[in-house]
Specification:
Strand 14 and strand 15 form a beta hairpin. This protein has 667 residues and is an alpha+beta fold. Helix 11 crosses helix 13, helix 15 packs parallel to helix 17 and helix 16 packs antiparallel against helix 17.
Length: 667
Amino acid sequence: MAVERTNRDVRTLITQIAAGEIMLPEIQRGYVWKASQVARLIESLYRGYPAGSLLFWKTGQPTETRGAAIGARQALPSVMPLYLLDGQQRLTSLFRVLTDHPDAQVVFNIETEAFQNQSAATRRNKKWIKVYDVVGPDSDVFAIHGDLKGAGLAIPDSEIGRRLSALQKITQRDFHMEVLHEFEYEEVADVFVRVNSGGRALKTTDLALATLSARTPGFLGQLEAESAHWAERGYGALDVNFLIKALTLSLSTTGTRLASVAKLTAASKESVEAGWQKVRRGLSRVVPLLQERLLIPTTALVPSLAALHPLIHYYGRWPDDTVISEELDNGLLYWFLAATARNRYGGASDTALTQDIRMLDNENPVPALLSNLGIYEGGISVTASDLAGRNHQSPYLMFCYLAAAHANATDWWDGCPISDGIDGSGKPQYSLVHPTAKLRTYGSKYSSAEINELANIVFVSEQTSKNIIGSRSPAAYMQSVSASDRVAHAIPNDPTVLDPEGYREFLGARRALLAERITALFDEFRPNSLAKDAAPPKTRAPRSLALVGYTGAGRSVLVAEAKSDDQGWIGWIDPADFEAALDAAATGIASDVPVGDETAPLRVDDEGSVTLGLGPFIIRGSLDEWRTAVKDAFEGVQPLAECPEPNDDQWSAEPQEFLLSNAGAQT
């Protein structure tokens, strides 16, 4: 085995990509860089900063490849190609910028030397020039220089020329290359995982995919084809990572833990193929059940996809022609609803999955699964208080949607079923019954948390939101909505709650209506083993968490207000520090976030959950949930003068886990 070391400039590398002389092996994942990362790469090259090395593999054996996200078809290579192992994001980004890809329109401010992605503002400002216009094959730097002279710049003409010349030279920057020769595919897969781990704990799916691709060329293509199949049907979150997890679970559990990726990668090709067929059979039964029986049109509504794994695991056991009773189907769907309501997989999901999948071996799996939820009799009954304080991040968003869907609710603009109102990202469209603009003008009486309550959300299209609701109170527009549609969407009849002054009464009335509908939905699938007269559930001391943004005097503060066992805690967080920590978390790096004079540990686990220790809680949520929570906190920003004083001393008691999806709610 040998390692060749050499250098090539950016322009040469881009030419080789176009000619198919640099290709991506199947073990590579998709292109994921954001526009801001592309701009930072171009800036690094402009300033002469190190941009890292590239790792390639050269082999004479046939190798499965995947298409590069360059927006163009690569030519058939005239020589043996190099397979890129490390540097895909950088080289793909450079190719996009240097070929004028619509998603890589990086611009440069000649006066401040700043880089960013093109926007409407930069298009209007002559000080911003597109990088492609300077480095592209048809660039006319002399003409660009002449245009900039008339832009009122605060730098001399000679400096304009120097900066344009420096920008041109980014295509001449060299990358150090290492090329592996005579390595076997399995060795290359191991190298790929090591160099792409960045010194962090390896993602289990990366290891599994690399190993499986090495042993079974084309397997990643099967996973991607299966994922695309379900994405076309609205279940886009059933991606390759989800499928690898399902495949791992198909190898069953051992002892008290789930089958690990080590077991998956050590399994025979025959075992993996058999497990893969189980996953496909399970999906072919589970997705239609969710869509046709529960009326869930998209995975964007499902709070935790982990709740699908026990269903897929169970149905995948049986041959395609096996007849499963409607009673068992209903019971398993009831368990799925109950597990979602109880946030069964909101915390450490592997532990819960181990317990639940082992219960599937029981002769009657439904009571066994429900016992893991603490449901032995009576079943689930939702009350108005269960919905109080919850917002769109709550698992109950799905139940509110289902309450409307099962009542045959339609859109108020075009009369189509609400299932037609799925936007381009796969999420259901919704609006506020009492719009923010109207409630804000009512003497600033209502907080952002109240305005954005789940009980104020209605599942209607953007057209309804613009053309019917607008900024009017429901008292003004509800007369244009038919009585049947108001009933289907659980809108209270009392006209006094449709004016801003009756908003809190509206919330109370609608919570009661929604709770009744959701409970009826549960009862529709209730298994016979559960008696209908439920004993009241035991309650514990209330715990709550609210994140609120405050701004004033050029300063912004994210305030965390926590309550546990009747004790309160308030901490101040700089939102810029927190955003930086979340950016680091996106790459798997842990941070310590300043909170007042102390620091709070922000950690990322193997499943991608982000935890932050604040006062009485270890708060757990996905990266998207954290970003949304911060965004929501500052959408209803409050004046800094009204910000409560922190008492962010370290919490004396042992902190308890708190799910971010429950923020704003009493739990």
